[in-house]
Amino acid sequence: MALNRGLGTPRTAVLAIVTTLVLVPAMWGQAKYRSLYRFTNGKDGASPVAGLIFDQAGNLYGTAWGGGAYQYGVVFRLTPNSDGRWTEKVLHSFTGREDGGNPQAGLVFDRAGNLYGTTTQGGAHHCDCGVVFELTQNADGKWKEKVLHSFTGGDSDGAAPTDRPIFDSSGNLYGTASNGGNNDFGVVFKLTPNSDGSWTETVIHYFASGNDGAYPRSGLIPDEAGNLYGTTSYGGTYGGGTVFKMKPHSDGTWTESVLYAFQNEGESPVAGLIFDSAGNLYGTTPVLIGGEGFGIAFELTPNSDGTWTERVLYRFCSLTRCPDGSYPGGLIFDRAGNLYGTANGGGDGGYGVVFKLTPRKDGGWEETVVHAFLDHPGADPHVGMILDTTGNLYGTTAGDGGYTFGSVFEFTP
Predict the structure, then answer these.
(1) pTM, whole model, 2 decimals?
(2) Beta strand segments in 321-377, E
(3) Which range of residues forms the domain containing residue 309?
Protein backbone atom coordinates (compact mmCIF):
# COMPACT_ATOMS: atom_id res chain seq x y z
CA MET A 1 0.00 0.00 0.00
CA ALA A 2 1.37 3.39 -0.96
CA LEU A 3 0.26 6.31 1.16
CA ASN A 4 0.31 9.92 -0.02
CA ARG A 5 3.22 11.88 1.51
CA GLY A 6 0.86 14.79 1.94
CA LEU A 7 -1.12 12.22 4.02
CA GLY A 8 -3.26 18.12 13.59
CA THR A 9 0.83 38.88 22.01
CA PRO A 10 -0.54 40.22 18.67
CA ARG A 11 2.12 41.85 16.57
CA THR A 12 1.78 44.31 13.70
CA ALA A 13 5.16 43.73 12.12
CA VAL A 14 6.88 40.66 10.77
CA LEU A 15 9.89 39.73 12.85
CA ALA A 16 13.18 38.82 11.23
CA ILE A 17 13.20 35.22 10.07
CA VAL A 18 16.10 33.15 11.35
CA THR A 19 16.02 29.40 10.75
CA THR A 20 18.74 27.26 12.22
CA LEU A 21 19.24 23.52 11.98
CA VAL A 22 20.88 21.57 14.79
CA LEU A 23 21.64 17.92 14.04
CA VAL A 24 21.88 16.05 17.30
CA PRO A 25 24.57 13.35 17.62
CA ALA A 26 23.70 9.69 17.98
CA MET A 27 23.47 9.98 21.75
CA TRP A 28 20.54 12.21 22.79
CA GLY A 29 21.24 12.41 26.51
CA GLN A 30 18.12 11.44 28.43
CA ALA A 31 15.90 11.32 25.34
CA LYS A 32 14.34 7.92 24.77
CA TYR A 33 12.32 6.45 21.92
CA ARG A 34 10.46 3.14 22.01
CA SER A 35 7.75 1.35 20.04
CA LEU A 36 4.75 0.56 22.22
CA TYR A 37 3.04 -1.56 19.57
CA ARG A 38 3.85 -2.74 16.05
CA PHE A 39 0.95 -3.58 13.75
CA THR A 40 0.97 -6.85 11.78
CA ASN A 41 -1.66 -6.23 9.06
CA GLY A 42 -3.75 -8.95 10.70
CA LYS A 43 -6.87 -8.44 12.76
CA ASP A 44 -4.95 -5.89 14.84
CA GLY A 45 -4.88 -3.36 11.97
CA ALA A 46 -2.26 -1.76 9.75
CA SER A 47 -0.87 1.63 8.76
CA PRO A 48 -2.20 4.11 11.33
CA VAL A 49 -2.10 7.56 9.73
CA ALA A 50 -4.00 9.46 12.45
CA GLY A 51 -3.13 10.83 15.86
CA LEU A 52 -3.93 9.41 19.30
CA ILE A 53 -5.97 10.42 22.34
CA PHE A 54 -5.81 9.43 26.02
CA ASP A 55 -8.64 8.48 28.34
CA GLN A 56 -8.56 9.39 32.04
CA ALA A 57 -7.04 6.02 32.92
CA GLY A 58 -4.03 6.53 30.65
CA ASN A 59 -5.10 4.24 27.81
CA LEU A 60 -4.39 5.30 24.23
CA TYR A 61 -7.02 5.21 21.47
CA GLY A 62 -6.59 5.51 17.72
CA THR A 63 -7.46 4.22 14.28
CA ALA A 64 -5.57 2.18 11.71
CA TRP A 65 -6.23 2.73 8.01
CA GLY A 66 -5.98 -0.93 6.99
CA GLY A 67 -5.97 -4.42 8.41
CA GLY A 68 -8.60 -5.70 10.78
CA ALA A 69 -11.00 -8.59 10.32
CA TYR A 70 -12.14 -7.24 6.94
CA GLN A 71 -9.00 -5.32 5.87
CA TYR A 72 -10.81 -1.95 6.01
CA GLY A 73 -9.17 -0.68 9.18
CA VAL A 74 -9.88 -0.67 12.91
CA VAL A 75 -10.43 1.41 16.02
CA PHE A 76 -7.96 0.25 18.68
CA ARG A 77 -7.05 0.79 22.32
CA LEU A 78 -3.60 0.39 23.90
CA THR A 79 -3.50 -0.35 27.63
CA PRO A 80 -0.29 0.01 29.67
CA ASN A 81 0.74 -3.02 31.74
CA SER A 82 2.66 -3.09 35.02
CA ASP A 83 5.79 -4.43 33.26
CA GLY A 84 5.96 -1.42 30.94
CA ARG A 85 4.48 -3.19 27.93
CA TRP A 86 1.25 -2.18 26.20
CA THR A 87 -1.62 -4.44 25.11
CA GLU A 88 -3.69 -3.70 22.00
CA LYS A 89 -7.43 -4.41 21.78
CA VAL A 90 -9.50 -3.88 18.64
CA LEU A 91 -12.74 -2.07 19.52
CA HIS A 92 -14.19 -2.18 16.00
CA SER A 93 -13.19 -3.67 12.64
CA PHE A 94 -14.65 -1.78 9.69
CA THR A 95 -16.29 -3.83 6.95
CA GLY A 96 -16.03 -1.25 4.18
CA ARG A 97 -19.83 -1.26 3.88
CA GLU A 98 -22.47 0.67 5.85
CA ASP A 99 -20.27 1.04 8.94
CA GLY A 100 -17.48 2.73 6.97
CA GLY A 101 -13.95 1.86 6.00
CA ASN A 102 -10.34 3.10 5.87
CA PRO A 103 -10.27 5.73 8.64
CA GLN A 104 -7.64 8.41 8.22
CA ALA A 105 -8.85 10.44 11.20
CA GLY A 106 -8.28 10.28 14.93
CA LEU A 107 -10.98 10.09 17.59
CA VAL A 108 -12.70 12.34 20.09
CA PHE A 109 -14.49 11.52 23.38
CA ASP A 110 -17.80 12.96 24.53
CA ARG A 111 -18.46 13.64 28.22
CA ALA A 112 -19.95 10.16 28.68
CA GLY A 113 -16.85 8.38 27.35
CA ASN A 114 -18.22 7.51 23.91
CA LEU A 115 -15.84 7.72 20.94
CA TYR A 116 -16.48 9.56 17.67
CA GLY A 117 -14.61 9.55 14.39
CA THR A 118 -14.84 9.46 10.61
CA THR A 119 -13.95 7.12 7.76
CA THR A 120 -13.02 8.05 4.19
CA GLN A 121 -14.78 5.08 2.59
CA GLY A 122 -17.92 2.98 3.06
CA GLY A 123 -21.33 4.17 4.14
CA ALA A 124 -24.89 3.52 3.08
CA HIS A 125 -24.54 5.03 -0.40
CA HIS A 126 -23.02 3.65 -3.60
CA CYS A 127 -20.43 6.43 -3.72
CA ASP A 128 -18.53 4.96 -0.73
CA CYS A 129 -18.18 8.54 0.53
CA GLY A 130 -17.45 7.74 4.18
CA VAL A 131 -19.25 8.14 7.50
CA VAL A 132 -19.24 9.82 10.90
CA PHE A 133 -19.51 7.13 13.59
CA GLU A 134 -19.95 6.70 17.34
CA LEU A 135 -18.59 3.84 19.47
CA THR A 136 -20.33 3.11 22.77
CA GLN A 137 -19.04 0.67 25.37
CA ASN A 138 -21.58 -1.88 26.64
CA ALA A 139 -21.80 -3.28 30.16
CA ASP A 140 -19.86 -6.39 29.06
CA GLY A 141 -16.92 -4.27 27.91
CA LYS A 142 -17.60 -4.67 24.21
CA TRP A 143 -18.02 -1.64 21.96
CA LYS A 144 -20.89 -1.05 19.55
CA GLU A 145 -20.65 1.16 16.47
CA LYS A 146 -23.43 3.47 15.29
CA VAL A 147 -23.27 5.49 12.08
CA LEU A 148 -24.38 9.07 12.71
CA HIS A 149 -24.15 10.17 9.08
CA SER A 150 -23.31 8.55 5.73
CA PHE A 151 -21.99 11.08 3.27
CA THR A 152 -23.67 11.19 -0.14
CA GLY A 153 -21.21 13.33 -2.10
CA GLY A 154 -22.62 15.44 -4.88
CA ASP A 155 -23.66 19.08 -4.62
CA SER A 156 -25.59 18.85 -1.35
CA ASP A 157 -23.21 16.93 0.90
CA GLY A 158 -19.57 16.16 1.55
CA ALA A 159 -17.43 13.10 0.91
CA ALA A 160 -14.23 11.53 2.25
CA PRO A 161 -13.66 13.21 5.65
CA THR A 162 -9.99 12.84 6.57
CA ASP A 163 -9.90 14.28 10.09
CA ARG A 164 -11.82 13.90 13.32
CA PRO A 165 -14.88 16.01 14.21
CA ILE A 166 -14.99 18.29 17.25
CA PHE A 167 -17.73 19.07 19.78
CA ASP A 168 -19.14 22.43 20.76
CA SER A 169 -20.55 23.13 24.23
CA SER A 170 -24.06 22.15 23.09
CA GLY A 171 -23.04 18.68 21.93
CA ASN A 172 -22.99 19.41 18.19
CA LEU A 173 -20.23 17.95 16.03
CA TYR A 174 -18.30 19.92 13.41
CA GLY A 175 -15.88 18.72 10.78
CA THR A 176 -14.61 18.95 7.22
CA ALA A 177 -14.99 16.63 4.26
CA SER A 178 -12.23 16.85 1.68
CA ASN A 179 -14.54 16.27 -1.28
CA GLY A 180 -18.20 16.60 -2.19
CA GLY A 181 -20.18 19.80 -2.29
CA ASN A 182 -20.13 22.23 -5.20
CA ASN A 183 -17.92 20.74 -7.93
CA ASP A 184 -16.43 18.29 -5.41
CA PHE A 185 -14.23 20.87 -3.63
CA GLY A 186 -15.21 19.86 -0.08
CA VAL A 187 -17.38 21.21 2.75
CA VAL A 188 -17.56 22.19 6.41
CA PHE A 189 -20.39 20.28 8.12
CA LYS A 190 -22.34 20.29 11.37
CA LEU A 191 -24.08 17.31 13.00
CA THR A 192 -26.87 18.05 15.48
CA PRO A 193 -28.20 15.36 17.87
CA ASN A 194 -31.98 14.81 17.91
CA SER A 195 -34.16 13.66 20.81
CA ASP A 196 -34.78 10.28 19.13
CA GLY A 197 -31.05 9.45 18.98
CA SER A 198 -30.61 10.34 15.31
CA TRP A 199 -28.39 13.14 14.04
CA THR A 200 -29.07 15.80 11.41
CA GLU A 201 -26.27 17.00 9.12
CA THR A 202 -26.08 20.55 7.83
CA VAL A 203 -23.43 21.83 5.44
CA ILE A 204 -22.35 25.24 6.76
CA HIS A 205 -19.88 26.00 3.96
CA TYR A 206 -19.34 24.71 0.43
CA PHE A 207 -15.83 25.39 -0.88
CA ALA A 208 -15.79 26.77 -4.41
CA SER A 209 -12.06 26.51 -5.25
CA GLY A 210 -11.92 30.27 -5.61
CA ASN A 211 -10.50 32.62 -3.02
CA ASP A 212 -12.22 30.59 -0.27
CA GLY A 213 -10.08 27.49 -0.89
CA ALA A 214 -10.67 23.85 -1.81
CA TYR A 215 -10.11 20.33 -0.50
CA PRO A 216 -9.91 20.72 3.29
CA ARG A 217 -7.82 17.83 4.63
CA SER A 218 -7.45 18.94 8.25
CA GLY A 219 -9.95 19.21 11.06
CA LEU A 220 -11.18 22.31 12.86
CA ILE A 221 -10.19 24.08 16.08
CA PRO A 222 -12.38 26.56 18.01
CA ASP A 223 -11.59 29.81 19.75
CA GLU A 224 -13.31 31.07 22.90
CA ALA A 225 -15.90 33.00 20.86
CA GLY A 226 -17.09 29.88 19.02
CA ASN A 227 -15.34 30.61 15.73
CA LEU A 228 -13.81 27.64 13.91
CA TYR A 229 -10.44 27.58 12.14
CA GLY A 230 -9.00 25.20 9.55
CA THR A 231 -6.96 24.85 6.38
CA THR A 232 -7.59 23.96 2.75
CA SER A 233 -4.94 22.17 0.74
CA TYR A 234 -5.69 24.00 -2.54
CA GLY A 235 -7.47 27.08 -3.82
CA GLY A 236 -7.18 30.56 -2.43
CA THR A 237 -5.99 33.65 -4.24
CA TYR A 238 -2.77 31.99 -5.38
CA GLY A 239 -3.91 28.37 -5.61
CA GLY A 240 -1.66 27.13 -2.80
CA GLY A 241 -4.29 26.66 -0.11
CA THR A 242 -5.64 28.76 2.74
CA VAL A 243 -6.12 29.21 6.46
CA PHE A 244 -9.80 30.01 7.00
CA LYS A 245 -12.20 31.05 9.75
CA MET A 246 -15.87 30.11 10.17
CA LYS A 247 -17.91 32.70 12.12
CA PRO A 248 -21.35 31.75 13.54
CA HIS A 249 -24.33 34.11 13.50
CA SER A 250 -27.38 34.26 15.74
CA ASP A 251 -29.67 33.00 12.95
CA GLY A 252 -27.69 29.77 12.63
CA THR A 253 -25.79 30.73 9.49
CA TRP A 254 -22.01 30.87 9.20
CA THR A 255 -19.61 33.07 7.27
CA GLU A 256 -16.26 31.86 5.95
CA SER A 257 -13.33 34.24 5.68
CA VAL A 258 -9.77 33.57 4.53
CA LEU A 259 -7.12 34.62 7.04
CA TYR A 260 -4.20 33.76 4.81
CA ALA A 261 -3.68 32.51 1.25
CA PHE A 262 -0.39 30.70 0.74
CA GLN A 263 1.75 32.16 -2.01
CA ASN A 264 5.49 32.80 -1.95
CA GLU A 265 6.41 30.24 0.72
CA GLY A 266 4.43 27.21 1.79
CA GLU A 267 1.77 25.34 -0.11
CA SER A 268 -0.96 22.74 0.33
CA PRO A 269 -1.39 22.56 4.13
CA VAL A 270 -2.89 19.23 5.18
CA ALA A 271 -2.22 19.31 8.94
CA GLY A 272 -4.38 21.07 11.50
CA LEU A 273 -3.71 24.28 13.39
CA ILE A 274 -2.99 25.06 17.04
CA PHE A 275 -3.31 28.25 19.10
CA ASP A 276 -0.85 29.70 21.57
CA SER A 277 -2.01 31.54 24.69
CA ALA A 278 -1.86 34.91 22.88
CA GLY A 279 -4.20 33.82 20.08
CA ASN A 280 -1.60 33.23 17.38
CA LEU A 281 -2.04 30.24 15.04
CA TYR A 282 0.65 27.71 14.17
CA GLY A 283 0.81 25.05 11.48
CA THR A 284 2.86 23.43 8.72
CA THR A 285 2.80 22.92 4.99
CA PRO A 286 4.45 19.93 3.29
CA VAL A 287 5.64 21.94 0.27
CA LEU A 288 7.89 24.97 -0.04
CA ILE A 289 7.16 27.28 -2.98
CA GLY A 290 9.72 29.21 -4.93
CA GLY A 291 12.82 27.18 -4.15
CA GLU A 292 14.25 23.94 -2.88
CA GLY A 293 12.69 22.45 0.22
CA PHE A 294 9.88 20.29 1.48
CA GLY A 295 7.74 22.20 3.90
CA ILE A 296 7.62 24.98 6.46
CA ALA A 297 6.42 25.63 10.00
CA PHE A 298 4.54 28.92 10.19
CA GLU A 299 2.89 31.33 12.60
CA LEU A 300 -0.12 33.56 11.87
CA THR A 301 -0.52 36.66 14.04
CA PRO A 302 -3.76 38.68 14.18
CA ASN A 303 -3.48 42.41 13.51
CA SER A 304 -5.66 45.19 14.90
CA ASP A 305 -7.36 45.73 11.53
CA GLY A 306 -8.57 42.14 11.33
CA THR A 307 -5.87 40.92 8.95
CA TRP A 308 -3.30 38.26 9.82
CA THR A 309 0.44 38.25 9.21
CA GLU A 310 2.32 35.05 8.36
CA ARG A 311 5.83 34.37 9.61
CA VAL A 312 7.92 31.36 8.54
CA LEU A 313 9.44 29.79 11.64
CA TYR A 314 11.45 27.11 9.83
CA ARG A 315 12.08 25.85 6.30
CA PHE A 316 12.56 22.09 6.10
CA CYS A 317 14.97 20.27 3.84
CA SER A 318 17.19 23.19 2.93
CA LEU A 319 20.08 20.73 2.61
CA THR A 320 20.57 18.07 -0.07
CA ARG A 321 19.70 14.94 1.94
CA CYS A 322 17.07 16.53 4.17
CA PRO A 323 18.67 15.48 7.49
CA ASP A 324 16.29 17.85 9.28
CA GLY A 325 13.21 16.12 7.87
CA SER A 326 10.73 16.75 5.06
CA TYR A 327 6.93 16.88 4.73
CA PRO A 328 6.14 18.00 8.31
CA GLY A 329 2.87 17.09 10.03
CA GLY A 330 1.02 18.74 12.92
CA LEU A 331 2.59 20.63 15.82
CA ILE A 332 2.15 20.64 19.59
CA PHE A 333 3.48 22.95 22.32
CA ASP A 334 5.21 21.69 25.44
CA ARG A 335 4.94 23.59 28.74
CA ALA A 336 8.12 25.54 28.02
CA GLY A 337 6.79 26.96 24.73
CA ASN A 338 8.75 24.67 22.42
CA LEU A 339 7.03 23.12 19.40
CA TYR A 340 7.30 19.41 18.63
CA GLY A 341 6.26 17.61 15.47
CA THR A 342 7.02 14.82 13.05
CA ALA A 343 8.15 14.85 9.43
CA ASN A 344 7.41 11.76 7.36
CA GLY A 345 10.49 12.02 5.17
CA GLY A 346 14.14 12.88 5.51
CA GLY A 347 16.35 12.25 8.51
CA ASP A 348 19.47 10.11 8.60
CA GLY A 349 17.54 7.00 7.52
CA GLY A 350 15.19 8.73 5.11
CA TYR A 351 12.18 7.47 7.06
CA GLY A 352 11.23 10.66 8.88
CA VAL A 353 12.04 12.41 12.15
CA VAL A 354 10.71 13.79 15.40
CA PHE A 355 11.75 17.43 15.59
CA LYS A 356 11.73 20.24 18.13
CA LEU A 357 11.42 23.95 17.37
CA THR A 358 12.80 26.21 20.11
CA PRO A 359 12.13 29.98 20.20
CA ARG A 360 15.23 32.14 20.49
CA LYS A 361 15.67 35.51 22.16
CA ASP A 362 16.29 37.19 18.79
CA GLY A 363 12.85 36.12 17.54
CA GLY A 364 14.08 33.24 15.39
CA TRP A 365 13.44 29.54 15.93
CA GLU A 366 15.97 26.72 16.10
CA GLU A 367 15.19 23.22 14.86
CA THR A 368 16.61 20.13 16.56
CA VAL A 369 16.18 16.59 15.25
CA VAL A 370 15.48 14.67 18.46
CA HIS A 371 14.81 11.32 16.80
CA ALA A 372 15.49 9.97 13.32
CA PHE A 373 13.50 6.90 12.30
CA LEU A 374 16.06 4.36 11.15
CA ASP A 375 14.03 1.15 11.12
CA HIS A 376 11.12 0.21 8.88
CA PRO A 377 8.69 -0.62 11.72
CA GLY A 378 9.08 2.93 12.92
CA ALA A 379 9.05 4.57 9.49
CA ASP A 380 6.84 7.24 7.97
CA PRO A 381 5.03 9.28 10.66
CA HIS A 382 2.13 11.14 9.06
CA VAL A 383 0.64 13.25 11.84
CA GLY A 384 1.54 15.16 14.98
CA MET A 385 1.89 13.85 18.51
CA ILE A 386 0.20 14.24 21.89
CA LEU A 387 1.70 14.86 25.33
CA ASP A 388 0.99 13.09 28.60
CA THR A 389 1.03 14.84 31.97
CA THR A 390 4.75 14.17 32.47
CA GLY A 391 5.85 15.50 29.08
CA ASN A 392 6.21 12.25 27.14
CA LEU A 393 5.15 12.39 23.47
CA TYR A 394 3.07 9.74 21.70
CA GLY A 395 2.45 9.25 17.99
CA THR A 396 1.94 6.81 15.16
CA THR A 397 3.88 5.70 12.10
CA ALA A 398 2.42 4.13 8.97
CA GLY A 399 5.21 1.72 8.00
CA ASP A 400 6.07 0.90 4.39
CA GLY A 401 2.86 -1.06 3.72
CA GLY A 402 4.76 -4.02 2.27
CA TYR A 403 6.95 -5.54 4.97
CA THR A 404 6.02 -3.35 7.91
CA PHE A 405 2.68 -1.89 8.90
CA GLY A 406 3.29 0.91 11.33
CA SER A 407 3.57 1.43 15.04
CA VAL A 408 2.55 3.45 18.07
CA PHE A 409 5.59 5.07 19.69
CA GLU A 410 6.57 6.97 22.82
CA PHE A 411 9.26 9.62 22.91
CA THR A 412 10.65 11.00 26.15
CA PRO A 413 12.47 14.34 25.62
Answers:
(1) 0.91
(2) 326-333, 339-345, 353-359, 365-372
(3) 47-338
